[in-house]
Design a protein that fits this description.
single chain, 0% strand, 203 residues, flat, mainly alpha, 8 helices
C-alpha cells in the first residue's frame, strides 16, 4: 500500500543521493531528494486514510522509523565533502531536522493511539527526551552544531506535547497532586532535561 510505497521511495531516494554524490552526478542526487520528498508526502496522505481501530494494528511506527532513518542517512551523506559540491550543508541540516521530526511524530502518533491523559503525556515526554539524547550523541560524535540546537527543540516539543495532552479538563494548579491522571513523571523528566541542557550550554 501507500505506506510501503513511501518507505521504498525513501530508501531509493537515499540510494540515488549517495550514488549521485559519489559520482558527481547532480541530476541523480537531486532526483534522490525529490524521491525523499515524494515519500514524505505519500506517507502523510496514507496516514489520513485510517480510522483508529485500523491504525492500532497498522504498525505506523515502522514507517515513521524508516522515513526518519533514511532522512538521517541522507543528511549524513550530504554533510560529507564531495569535490566541487560545497553548498550542501543547508540541505544536510534540513534533512536532519526532518529526521528528528519524523522520529518525534512517530512516537507521538503511536502514543496517542494507545494512551490518554497523564500516561499519554509521560510517553510523549519520554519520546522527546529519547530524541534529544540521540541528537546530543550525534552532535558530540559528528561535531554537528545543528544537532546540538535540535536537542533543545526536542525538549520544547516534549513540553508542548505534555501541555496538549493534559490541558483538557485539568487545572494546572492540580498538576502536583499524586493522581494517576497527572503527568508527574513527565514533569520530572522535563525538569531534569532542562537542568542538564542548561549545564551543557554553560560549558
Amino acid at each position: 500500500d501507500a505506506r510501503w510505497t513511501s518507505a521504498a521511495w525513501a530508501l531509493q531516494g537515499f540510494g540515488f543521493v549517495w550514488f549521485g554524490l559519489q559520482h558527481r552526478r547532480q541530476v541523480i542526487w537531486i532526483c534522490g531528494l525529490l524521491l525523499q520528498v515524494a515519500a514524505w508526502i505519500s506517507f502523510t496522505i496514507a496516514l489520513s486514510g485510517f480510522d483508529i481501530d485500523t491504525a492500532l494494528t497498522a504498525h505506523f511506527w515502522l514507517g515513521f522509523l524508516l522515513l526518519a532513518g533514511s532522512a538521517y542517512a541522507v543528511a549524513v551523506v550530504l554533510r560529507r565533502p564531495h569535490g566541487g559540491e560545497q553548498d550542501l550543508f543547508p540541505l544536510s541540516n534540513t534533512a536532519l531536522v526532518v529526521a528528528a521530526v519524523w522520529l518525534l511524530a512517530g512516537w507521538c502518533t503511536e502514543a496517542s493511539l494507545r494512551f490518554s491523559g497523564g500516561t499519554l503525556a509521560n510517553w510523549i515526554v519520554a519520546g522527546s527526551m529519547l530524541t534529544a539524547l540521540l541528537l546530543y550523541a550525534i552532535s558530540l560524535r559528528m561535531v554537528w552544531p545543528t544537532a546540538r540546537r535540535l536537542v533543545l527543540a526536542a525538549q520544547i516539543a516534549g513540553a508542548v506535547g505534555l501541555a496538549m495532552a493534559v490541558s483538557p479538563g485539568l487545572l494546572w494548579i492540580r498538576i502536583v497532586e499524586l493522581n494517576n491522571a497527572m503527568p508527574l513523571l513527565g514533569i520530572v523528566i522535563l525538569a531534569g532535561a532542562a537542568f542538564a541542557t542548561s549545564r551543557t550550554l554553560q560549558q
